[in-house]
Write a structure and sequence with these properties.
Single alpha-helices involved in coiled-coils or other helix-helix interfaces; single chain; binds guanosine-5'-diphosphate
Length: 383
């Protein structure tokens, strides 16, 4: 009945340190300065803060984001068009990316596809290519092991081994468990932090299941769908709506005996894409084949991403879309703020539980119950 004794081998000092580590150890300015200086440890800490569900962490995280946005905007205004990439090499094309720690000059790319399609192999191949071009890349990746091992980072499957040790790449795995394919994480906020830390290209990876793609689509400039040859759309769990969102569809694993099949699938998708009405972006979606393993087509994909950027920058869609996305962020932030404030009211859970009981017993209609609770909340009566 006394329970189990604390085992003797637990090092109390280490435990204390571990617990202390869970508290936010830094102040806002320290984190903002560290992120702007490209300090990965502080960047990771800040991301952990914004992902946290503890109110004090969330608040701190929001302040860090506000600080980063302020600073990057100021730097953008001071940058005077000075362009430089991480290795000091200037890309030659006129759609070059400035590495001016200016979020507005980054490229945000959503990458989706069902598990097994080769996302991590692909991201590693394309990522290595991008960093070899002198860009800095952040990957907001899915941690596939988390559903099983409940949060262990990278668990039994090591993904993107080469990219993980690339000094110009930063990989942030997020648990996929229970969330919309991994986007319940604070992806938008994480993008802002990574951009403030000087990453030019941001990859956001999702598993192709539906809702998560729509969410990711609303955060990125370019949406890439990875598919397999020889498996129907239904088999791949890909819905028409997702195909419609894609700027590029890549049929992966076009190597060995599979090349012919991949080419045939590519034709089918190219035809299917033509049936969709033209996109507002002025971009005509492309279907092509690639092999993350043999690196076939990897350089072409980067060219397509840059080409898309060039098109949308010149017709104004790039900024139009970002501003539209910001408008959505604003609305979502209001929703989240109200939601948070409502549920933070003292006594609210008891009031809700009471109402739910009445609804369950048929004594209260759900609409009236909601109205009543909201009325009490707005009247400041809940406590
Ligand atoms: P994810 O679950 O979508 O991240 O897929 P992975 O990148 O883990 O790849 C799943 C399996 O497909 C692994 O065994 C890879 O080695 C393999 N794979 C990935 N890309 C290719 C490719 O281009 N060609 C071939 N033949 N196999 C690939």
């Amino acid at each position: 009945m006394d329970g189990i004794e604390q085992p003797g081998q637990v090092n109390k000092e280490a435990l204390k340190k571990l617990k202390a580590g869970k508290r936010p150890p830094h102040n806002v300015q320290e984190l903002v300065d560290g992120i702007l200086a490209g300090n990965r440890t502080l960047l990771s800490k800040a991301i952990t803060l914004v992902e946290s569900s503890l109110p004090e962490h969330m608040e701190l995280g929001q302040e860090v984001i506000a600080g980063c946005l302020r600073e990057t905007r100021a730097q953008l205004q001071n940058a005077n068009g000075k362009l430089q990439t991480a290795n000091g090499k200037l890309p030659t094309a006129d759609y070059r990316l400035p590495t001016a720690k200016s979020g507005e000059n980054s490229i945000r790319v959503g990458i989706t596809g069902v598990p097994g399609v080769g996302k991590s192999t692909f991201i590693e191949a394309l990522g290595k290519y991008i960093t070899s071009q002198g860009y800095r890349l952040a990957v907001l990746a899915i941690d596939p092991s988390s559903a099983r091992s409940k949060g262990s980072i990278l668990g039994d499957k090591t993904r993107m081994e080469e990219l993980a040790v690339d000094p110009n790449a930063f990989i942030r795995p997020s648990p996929a468990a229970g969330s919309l394919g991994g986007v319940a994480r604070k992806t938008r906020e994480t993008i802002i932090l990574c951009e403030a830390a000087g990453f030019d290209v941001i990859f956001v990876e999702t598993v192709g299941v539906g809702q998560s793609e729509t969410a990711v689509h609303s955060m990125v400039d370019f949406f890439l769908l990875l598919m397999l040859a020889g498996a129907g759309d239904e088999l791949q769990g890909i819905k028409r709506g997702i195909i419609e969102m894609a700027d590029v569809i890549m049929i992966n694993k076009a190597d060995g005996d599979n090349i012919g099949k991949a080419q045939a699938a590519c034709m089918e998708y190219a035809n299917a894409l033509q049936l969709f009405p033209p996109a507002d972006s002025g971009w005509l979606p492309v279907a092509d084949i690639c092999s993350a393993r043999s690196k076939l087509g990897i350089d072409c994909i980067w060219e397509l991403i840059l080409e898309h950027r060039k098109t949308t920058l010149s017709n104004g869609y790039f900024y139009h879309q970002r501003m539209e996305q910001n408008r959505q962020v604003f609305r979502d932030a209001i929703d989240a703020g109200l939601h948070h404030h409502f549920f933070a009211q003292k006594g609210i859970s008891e009031v809700i539980a009471g109402m739910e009981e009445e609804i369950r017993e048929g004594r209260m209609n759900p609409y009236r119950a909601a109205q009543e609770v909201l009325g009490r909340y707005l009247g400041g009566l809940v406590d």
